[in-house]
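[Automated response] Your request has been received and processed.

Submitted sequence:
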Amino acid sequence: MNVEEIIKTDRSIPLKSRTIIHFMLVNNKINEEISAVLKPYDVSLQQFNVLRILRGQKGRPANLSTLNERMVTKMSNTTRLVDKLLSKGYADRKTCPSNRRKVEITITKKGEEELKKMDLAMNQAERKILQNFDQKELEQLNTLFNKF
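Generated structure:
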């Protein structure tokens, strides 16, 4: 990916600026690929992330705070994400019996079944996105990312 070609400039971009632009372009490309894979399921990347968190609870309910803490993309509209999953039948919400102000959210059987299908599609997308990297390069890339 040549940054200068993509943004159509003839001038040389300073290394630090070029690096940031490169990150942004890679991020956009990855988001486009993943969004395309999730589109047939009518689920956004954030909704997919919530479903994975709920599945990771292994039957234990989560609350909005738990979901927000564990989200890859931190958002203030977690309630709206959960509402969309509820309307699709992928999640269930109940008021906590011991604390009426607390809402407990769980993944439904339907949500688990659909998530399994999404997982397969996501695995294919990950392979496609990372097809030009070998194992060692992926490890190096993750080491570099850890520096952030």
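Summary generated for your ticket: DSSP finds seven helices and two strands in the chain. The mean pLDDT is 90.
If you did not submit this request, please reply to this message.
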